[in-house]
Amino acid sequence: MMGAKVFQDVFSIHKREKTFETSLAFVVDVSESMGDDILQLTTTTEKIINESIHSKYMPDYYILVTYSDPGLLSVKYLH
User: Fold this and answer.
1) Each residue of 16-48: pLDDT tens digit?
2) Most buried of the four, 14, 16, 18, 78, by CB within 10 Å?
3) Which residues pair with 63 in a beta bridge?
C-alpha cells in the first residue's frame, strides 16, 4: 500500500499553495496629464498593498509597470 505522501511525490501532486505563486501588479500612467492624480494613486496603491500584506492571500511578488506617451517620454530624455 502506498501512503499519501509517496502517492503525491510519484505523481507530482502538490498542494496549490506549494505550486502557485501570486503577484500583485500595478500599471500606472505617468504621463504629464496624470500629474494631478498621482497623489490619489499613491494613497490608493499604498492602501491596497497594506491590505494585501495582512491578508492570507499576500502576494509573493509586487510588480510596478509604468507607461506614458512615447512622444513625451522621448522629449524628456532628449533635453
Assistant:
1) 555 567 888 998 888 888 888 888 888 998 999
2) 14
3) 25
Cell of 32: 504629464
**What is the Cα 56 distance to its own chain's centre?**
16
What's the rounded Cα separation, in Å, for the pair 45 and 64? 10
**What is the model's pTM?**
0.58
Residue type, 43: T
DSSP string covering 2-66, please? --HHHHHHHTT---HHHH---EEEEEEE-SGGGGGGHHHHHHHHHHHHHHHHTSTT--SEEEEEE
CA distance 47 to 50: 5
Helix (H) or strand (E) holding 78: helix 70-78
CA 9 to chain centre: 31
Average pLDDT taken over every residue of the chain: 76
